[in-house]
Amino acid sequence: MSAAAMDEPVELEPERTLLIVDDDRLFLQRLARAMESRGFVVSMAETVAEGLTSVQASPPAYAVVDMRLGDGNGLDVIAAIRARRPDSRAIVLTGYGNIATAVNAVKLGAVDYLAKPADADDIYTALTTPSGERVAPPENPMSADRVRWEHIQRVFEMCDRNVSETARRLNMHRRTLQRILAKRAPR
């Protein structure tokens, strides 16, 4: 390869742009790295406002958006993406899934709705599965015990690691919660 060819900028595929909007910074950064390793050009936002600004500047081909964000509802970002780029593929992530919000997310243009904690492989599959095809079930899904443990950990973090407040919000006895938190994560 000539030196001139090496100096030329590499053309990025606009079809591989991905916007990730999530207020959990660690999850956001881990998912961004995982998706970059799968060939996406990733931009990140932690709020609805940042997500909307990013969409206005450059509507992505793909998006992963958390439902509940500190400054509003992630569905506003989904709607803005679909308005600016109708061919985009967006999925919604949430720790608080229910049928009504799933239906609303799909009506606004989301192609899938995944419960947290979602694996990067599951997210990639949901984003890249052609429309109309069913996504294959995961090979090694999390056990019900693990999903419960993850939910408890998420609420615990949201309550600033306050055991009493977490127990109250989960409608659980404080000692029971302390025993669960003292154990290792189930597989």
Automatic annotation (TrEMBL):
GO MF annotation, one: DNA binding
Q: Which species is listed as the source?
A: Oricola cellulosilytica
Q: Which InterPro entries match?
A: ActR_PrrA_rreg, Bact_response_regulator, CheY-like_superfamily, Sig_transdc_resp-reg_receiver
Please give the biological process terms from Gene Ontology that the record holds.
phosphorelay signal transduction system
SMART domains, per the entry: REC
Whether Transcription regulation counts among this entry's keywords is yes
**Listed transmembrane segments:** none
Q: What is this protein called?
A: ActR/PrrA/RegA family redox response regulator transcription factor
Q: Which residues carry this modification: 4-aspartylphosphate?
A: D66
Q: Which UniProt keywords apply?
A: DNA-binding, Phosphoprotein, Transcription, Transcription regulation, Two-component regulatory system
Response regulatory domain mapped to chain residues: 17-131
